[in-house]
Amino acid sequence: MNQQEKRVIRDFAPIILNSLEVKDIIPYLWQHGLISQSVTEELLELNETRRTKCKKFLDYVLTVDSKCTFEGLLSALRFNNVYDFIADKLRKELVSNELFYDYSDALKQTTTVDENAQGDMLFQSVRKIPILTSERKRLTEFSIKLKHLSHNAEFDSLEKVTCSIKQTFYKDKLNNNKQVRGKMSLADMYFLSMEALVSLRRQKYDAAEDATNYFEEMTALIPFTTDPRISSMVYLARCGSSVAMDTKKRFCS
């Protein structure tokens, strides 16, 4: 037995001493090689009270030389369904202890790392990005509609929508009377439509292409979107996917 298993048995010794009749489980333990014949004979022939016999049994189980395992003891207690309640308590306590000590060890390791890494940005709390805003939900719905066009291969319709948004975006961009928030919303819509076009066309990234390249347009739009961080993540994901597809195509050809 390991130390945790022995600790559980010691903690529940009062219940075991008050309930267990050693002669009920000794034959099972001996038949399964979990206790020696000499110890078996000693406990069965011992002219002492039930409680004293039980105490001697526990002393043997907890010794270093004991062959009795924790699982073996539980099986013996459950034999003939006589001491199921003791076995269940021991099992439950062991599981609780294992969870507690595992958590304690992890907590100690975390504390040690934090103490040694003070000032390191990798271990500082990361500020949450407010993604699930009402504006973001609206843009998500718009993106889903664009993706439907993309998945249905309706390129003409998707390109028409994109061109319309593009014209409105550049027109309002130069209009000082337009609110900044409205301009950013148009930039978001334009960016999402470009992302949908990339998805449909499966464009590969090529830095040498001219300014009409979809990826270059997306890159230019990022600073004008509502949240450039989210736009950057979307761009990198789409760009990485396109690079991977192009690499796979070259590898297979």
UniProtKB/TrEMBL annotation:
Domain CARD: 1-78
CDD domains in UniProt: CARD
InterPro entries: CARD (IPR001315), DEATH-like_dom_sf (IPR011029)
Name this protein carries in UniProt: CARD domain-containing protein
GO biological process: regulation of apoptotic process
Regions crossing the membrane: none
